[in-house]
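Objective 1b. Sequence-to-structure analysis of diguanylate cyclase.
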Amino acid sequence: MSLHLNSSTKIKLFGVILGILIVCSFATLQFIVLFGVIKPTAYFVPSIVGGLSGFFIATWFNKLSEAKKEAEESHNRLKLVLEGTQTGLWDWFPKTNVVIFDEQWCRLLGYQLDEIEPAFESWQSRVHPKDLEQCYADIKRHIDGETSFYSNIHRMKHKDGHWVYILDRGQIIERDADNQPIRFTGTHTDISQLKEMENALEHSNKRLKQLTLRDGLTGLHNRRALDEHLIQEWGHWERNQTSISVLMVDIDFFKQFNDLYGHIKGDECLKQVAKVLQSSVKRTNDMAARYGGEEFLIILSGVTRTEAFSIAQKIHDDIERLAIPHKNSSIALQVTVSIGINGCDAEQRCRSYQALIEGADKALYEAKQLGRNRTVLYNGCMAK
């Protein structure tokens, strides 16, 4: 039968044997010097003492060895984690402004350890100037005890010139009698890839929002975007008493156009008319939107009803220049539009943006009743 012993047991057994041999050797010399003879029975006590001593020394040595091994393994695991997460360590001693960086910290910025001076200036000089003020503010908040730990995201300049996004986290681990920091330790983590993903996601979300606010066919804003814009502009008008005008535009006899030319031609007609309407929107706060079907709405901020009427006349002229054939129209041989206008200014107040649109709708109805291909201004007493 074979006996399998683990390394710990082997070390302890070796310690016992070695202890017995050493103590017994000293005992032998002592017997010879003092008595001139060796008595085998006299080895009983030295063997026990030597064995126990060897056992305890071997046990202590084994635990020390295991602790050292565990420390090395922990160090290697930490090193792997820091390298895998692109994290570097720093120790800052505020009273002397000495900062001790580890190799990984230096590698984050493309340097070797001997290329970075262990000083606060080494960090400070590489932080983006626009981010430095917030870094100082967050550090001060932690020093003043307002936060349990320091945390900040800032950009640092890489050795090759590009900027690296750093998650900087730390904590004061030692203070003096006056509660001033003696030692401040923490980590730097390269989060550039996360920031790139975050920026890409933000861009995608903005793009997605834009798509949800656009009419898929004409490219104009849709009804949802229109509602949001109206609420915003109405609040602006109420606060500043700024003029605002609305043009409601309808393509004359569009159903008959579709019946004759088909929906593909109808879609093309809508897109050409939408392009003309969009060209009438000149300023940031103006908007052209597809209201529904062949109806469109134009919002003109800072424009009086009289000025809006001139813009409507230009729209008529531009639509006429398109010269889109429309043999089923009862009023012309090409596509035309009818426009109703309503506005809020010093002369005419509006109780709400809904009332503003309702007025434009009534004016459009009046334009159709009068024969189409014309513009009518809402006069406040029209009935639909």
